[in-house]
Amino acid sequence: MVVGTAGCAQESDTEASTQSTTTTALPTKTPSPYAEQADEFRAFLQQEEISIVELLPQPPANTVELTYVSNEAQYEEVGGEIGTIAGGFFNRVANGWEAERLNAIVMDSPESRFGTWHAKSSWFADYQDGELSANELSLKVLDTLSRAEDA
Fold first, then answer.
1. pLDDT at 23
2. Pairing mode of beta strands 101-109, 112-120
3. What is the pTM of this model?
4. Is residue 13, in this structure, part of any structural domain at all?
């Protein structure tokens, strides 16, 4: 009876070692270039001390949805901040990001919507082609700024 027990124990050890050596490695998911560019944009915004509430890249639609809390106290003072954010977006586009549009929601606090604005990569392409000056590009973006209805 002791020999039978030893044989069973030995068989269990063999089964256990066979099971541990046949584990299948799960494939690692490689982030898409679109998502990597979004991560780089997020890092840029954080470096510029932009308080991101939400940053959602939407690859099928090639849009980026950004919600952030402004560092500026007045609606009329957000222009420089918008220029910084739009410049970061255009820089990513220049480096291959296939995003066509950045939609931004500006908050004056995490609970209160301040306004909205957007930037289009096609405007940046026009700038690169010499069809728009840097000032005209900036004005195109700033002209999209609209005050939130509850602000």
1. 53
2. antiparallel
3. 0.76
4. no
Give the helix/strand (H/E) hosting 86: helix 79-94
Q: Where does 22-106 have alpha helices with state H?
A: 33-47, 79-94
Q: Is residue 26 in some structural domain?
A: no
Report how far apart, in Å, the C-alpha atoms of 132 and of each of 83, 91, 149 are. 16, 16, 31
For residue 125, give its domain range.
33-147
What type of residue sits at position 138? S
- Please give the DSSP secondary-structure letter assigned to residue 99: -
Give the number of domains in the chain.
Answer: 1
Mean pLDDT, consecutive 10-residue stretches, the chain (151 aa), reads 45 47 55 84 96 90 93 84 96 94 92 92 97 96 87 47
Helix (H) or strand (E) holding 63: strand 63-69
Q: Is residue 22 part of a domain?
A: no
